[in-house]
Amino acid sequence: MAPSKQQALFLEAKFGNFAVHTVDVPKPGAGEVLVKVHSAALNPLDWKIQKYGIFVEHFPAVLGSDIAGDVAEVGAGVTGVSVGDRVFLQGRFTKTTGGFQQYVIAKLFGKVIIPHNITYDDASTFPVGLFTAYVGLFQQGPGGFGLANVLVDGRNKSSGQAIVVLGGSGSVGQFVLQLAKLAGFSTIITTASLKHTDHLKSLGATYVIDRYASSEAVSAEVSKLTGSDGVNYAFDAISIPETQQLGYDLLSADGEIALLLSDTIKNKVEGKKIHSVQGVASLPKNHELAVLFYEKIGSLVQEGEIKPETTEALPNGLAGIPDGLKRLENNKVSGAKLVARPQESA
Q1: Any idea where the Enoyl reductase (ER) domain is (predicted)?
Q2: What is the CATH number of the domain that holds 214?
Q3: What is this structure's pTM?
Q4: Which tens digit of pLDDT belongs to each residue from 18-60?
Q5: Is the dihedral of CA 146, 147, 148, 149 positive or negative?
Q6: Is the residue at 210 inside a domain?
Q7: CB 193 within 8 A of CB 164
Q8: DSSP per-residue string spanning 196-216
Q9: Residue 201 lies inside a defined structural domain of this protein
């Protein structure tokens, strides 16, 4: 049974400060569950919401999209999960559904059980990063490449093809590499800090190019590896203007690029496709993919075919999150996912 009170980290106003407050633990309604949050991973979007005033209009708000924990209470009509089940899920930026608190309300997509061979911290790396990579690769256009889904019958269907992943050491990039490997891509090229080369190759990359190399140098290296006609697919897991243009220019005449941020590509040519990836499980267009994802992804994790990101646990529970977000903003985190443990809050 959940307690009546909890600690929650609020963004108190647009462009405002973060502060921990004691609030009531919410009650799940019909079709909802209450989840005790053991791990909540941080994302760059969290600090961008505070700094740029984007995405959230109603304050105070609780941020945090990557959640792993236990089902504490089950609302009317919920099937497939029971109290005590270990689950991971995407949070939404409201006072009852954001991950930066000790208990959240959620609607689950069927049975979303965390395999017992991974920790809550590990599982908190999956909801946003892995789902976004999955949507970008397997959602039908214009939201993704529409490749044969590896969770059904798409294993090795992309044999003989090449993909470039810009930003392979980031949250989304690491999962794109793993899913591309399962899809059977023969050539998987990524850009990243070279210190991550061995790890990224263990995830599926066949070649790692220095992220600090010039666009001209990257293009020359990709051409050397794949031929002068360009690549069929580019997944831009960074999606700043410079990487968008680079990825687009690497494409073959009928190639496709997946972007995580708004399209800023210049000098477009007919034939090349641009996909805007929205890795939000609750979007109606993603519902079918989300149900399949949560039903089947656990077996791939349990078998070691999908590996979580490396994590770094932050100190002081919820109170440690603002400093963690500052580190993300200042590019002081590389190759690891920062994770808060709300139950360790004072």
Answers
A1: 13-340
A2: 3.40.50.720
A3: 0.96
A4: 999 999 999 999 999 999 999 999 999 999 999 999 989 999 9
A5: negative
A6: yes
A7: no
A8: GHHHHHHHT-SEEEETTS-HH
A9: yes
